[in-house]
């Protein structure tokens, strides 16, 4: 194997690693993936906005279309949405594989390969472990697209526990359910999830994904929810689990460039703090990352040129993430009672129409900010 021929090595063959790879148009790129197949194990609810689907390059794998949501607090439910299709549900295994096949026109893949950083004389190199054999290589650029726990990010000192909150998740795919396929259910109920929320996402054909994200043991919390929440009991009363997955969600970001190492996607914390969605932001940033790396290599620029990636991606989505982080701080302090009052306020003050008109799942902070500012009557000010 001639691994030194690659100018760029991307660690992580998830969708964002692949889109980064295909965006580096003029250089040799290798993607290494520790698993034996692209797209597994699943760690995603697969709900993607229209804009997100476009940004991902209209991949295969769509299984359902969504018109809106039931937002449930402890004692109040608000129904948002109308006739308009607002989001799509994807089979991530199919989607990820399709994106990888597309990327393979431009990049090479090496599966069953674990990548880790080696530091030598202030330079970052890579050790690749492929089927028990180790290879040391020195690509000009190393990209960590290695997900929420990014070992690449940690080993170069970009990611640590202070600049990133990590939440756990547990999700089941269940069949034989009793659900309206057009609407997702979101449960904001601190009795089940103190720091995030629970979802039921219809996949069509009597299938749903039901998942919970929080700190601690999410498996037990999800079982508690399925067995005890009245709406969940109704939807899932005859249901059987056909798939089980656990995952991690990064909340917050840090610096994403150090010497010849860049981070992208979940590894970079390019995730919406209010919903955990990372595919749209990740795909956007992957293209910026690929373009900057391409320019850096084509023009033999100084290493500092790579820092433009960070400037550009923050310009695109940094403000939205910052706002999301602020709103999350408020959410963490709210009790079930206060969340109920807020939802009642939305229901009774014409805000549902406002949300239907202006709601954007890729920029949720605009609408949440508007709702909060109305609710708190101007006491809260956001940037
Ligand atoms: C429960 C849950 C639900 C979610 N739901 C949604 C949703 O509905 N919509 C949405 O937009 N987003 C959602 N997300 C977020 C979304 O899944 C991520 O943002 C997206 O997968 C990020 O893609 P990525 O390529 O950056 O990372 P990943 O998809 O995590 O891919 C990283 C890849 O790197 C590989 N890897 C890691 N370390 C190494 C190593 N050292 N060497 C080699 N390979 C390595 C891994 O095996 C993996 O294949 C959800 C996340 C969770 C946890």
What keywords describe this structure?
single chain, 383 residues, alpha/beta, FAD/NAD(P)-binding domain, D-Amino Acid Oxidase, Chain A, domain 2, 2 domains, 7-stranded mixed sheet, 6-stranded mixed sheet, 11 helices, 19 strands, globular, binds flavin-adenine dinucleotide
Question: What does it look like?
Answer:
The protein is of the alpha/beta class and 383 residues long. The chain has 2 domains: 3-41 and 93-163 and 251-324, FAD/NAD(P)-binding domain (3-Layer(bba) Sandwich), CATH 3.50.50; 47-90 and 165-250, D-Amino Acid Oxidase, subunit A, domain 2 (D-Amino Acid Oxidase, Chain A, domain 2, 2-Layer Sandwich). The protein is 34% helix and 28% strand. The protein has 11 helices and 19 strands. The chain has helices at 15-23, 50-55, 92-103, 151-155, 218-228, 230-235, 279-298, 307-333, 336-348, 351-358, 364-375, and strands at 8-11, 29-32, 47-49, 62-66, 68-72, 77-81, 87-90, 108-110, 113-120, 123-130, 133-137, 141-144, 165-175, 183-187, 198-204, 207-214, 240-251, 257-258, 261-263. The strands form 4 sheets. Strands 6-5-14-15-16-13-17 form a 7-stranded mixed β-sheet. A 6-stranded mixed β-sheet has the order 8-2-1-12-19-18. Strands 3-7-4 form a 3-stranded antiparallel β-sheet. The longest helix has 27 residues, at 307-333. The chain starts with 7 loop residues before the first strand and ends in an 8-residue tail after the last helix. 46% of the residues are buried. The mean pLDDT is 94. The structure holds flavin-adenine dinucleotide (FAD). The site of flavin-adenine dinucleotide has 40 residues, from helix 1, strand 3, strand 9, strand 13 and strand 16.
């Amino acid at each position: 194997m001639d691994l030194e021929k690659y100018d760029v090595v991307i660690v992580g063959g998830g969708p964002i690693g692949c889109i980064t790879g295909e965006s580096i148009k003029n250089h040799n790129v290798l993607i290494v993936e520790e698993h034996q197949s692209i797209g597994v194990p699943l760690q995603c609810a697969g709900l993607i906005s229209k804009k997100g689907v476009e940004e991902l390059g209209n991949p295969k794998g769509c299984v359902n279309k969504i018109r809106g949501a039931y937002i449930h607090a402890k004692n109040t439910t608000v129904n948002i949405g109308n006739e308009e299709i607002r989001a799509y549900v994807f089979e991530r295994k199919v989607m990820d594989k399709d994106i990888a096949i597309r990327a393979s026109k431009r990049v090479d893949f090496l599966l069953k390969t674990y990548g880790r950083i080696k530091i030598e004389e202030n330079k970052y190199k890579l050790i690749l472990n492929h089927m028990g054999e180790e290879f040391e290589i020195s690509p000009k650029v190393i990209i960590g697209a290695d997900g929420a726990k990014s070992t690449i990010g940690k080993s170069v000192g970009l990611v640590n526990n202070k600049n990133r909150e990590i939440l756990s998740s547990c999700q089941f795919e269940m069949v034989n359910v009793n659900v309206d396929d057009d609407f997702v259910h979101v449960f904001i109920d601190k009795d089940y999830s103190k720091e995030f929320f629970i979802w039921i996402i219809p996949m069509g054909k009597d299938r749903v994904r039901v998942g919970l994200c929080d700190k601690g043991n999410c498996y037990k919390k999800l079982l508690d929810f399925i067995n005890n929440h009245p709406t969940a009991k109704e939807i899932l009363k005859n249901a059987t689990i056909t798939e089980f997955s656990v995952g991690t969600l990064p909340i917050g970001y840090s610096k994403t460039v150090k010497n010849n190492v860049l981070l992208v996607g979940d590894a970079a914390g390019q995730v919406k703090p209010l919903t955990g969605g990372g595919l749209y932001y990740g795909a956007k940033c992957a293209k910026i990352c690929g373009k900057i790396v391409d320019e850096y290599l084509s023009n033999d620029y100084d290493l500092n040129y790579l820092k433009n990636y960070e400037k550009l991606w923050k310009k695109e989505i940094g403000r939205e993430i910052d706002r999301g982080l602020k709103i999350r701080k408020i959410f963490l302090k709210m009790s079930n009672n206060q969340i109920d009052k807020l939802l009642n306020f939305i229901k009774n003050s014409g805000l549902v129409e406002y949300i239907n008109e202006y709601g954007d799942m890729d920029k949720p902070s605009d609408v949440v900010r508007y709702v909060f500012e109305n609710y708190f009557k101007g006491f809260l000010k956001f940037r």
